[in-house]
Design brief:
The chain is of the alpha+beta class. The protein is built from three helices and four strands. The longest helix has 14 residues, at 7-20.
Length: 86
């Protein structure tokens, strides 16, 4: 059986794949004195050992990876805005 996938479905698959790639914050990122103001949104996921969340996602959208990793509560980030809950 061949299943035909439309362009919207393919776009959503790509977005889901991008959001599944975790980039962990490094100490050098945490100690950045300032961040360049480039808008390339990321979803900064909170460290579950520090933050207890009762809703999904346990994350916030940041303007870029530097801003996300500057927050000591963020463990890692994924590309793009955080997923929305329905």
């Amino acid at each position: 059986n061949i299943k035909i996938i439309d362009a919207t479905s393919i776009t959503q698959i790509i977005i889901n794949l991008e959001q599944s790639i975790k980039t962990f914050c490094e100490e050098t990122q945490r100690n950045a004195g300032a961040c360049i103001k480039i808008y390339k949104p990321v979803c900064g996921w909170n460290n579950s050992e520090k933050i207890q969340c009762i809703t999904f996602p346990c994350a916030s959208t940041y303007g870029n990876s530097c801003e996300a990793c500057s927050n000591e509560d963020v463990l890692y980030y994924t590309d793009g805005e955080c997923p929305k809950t329905n």
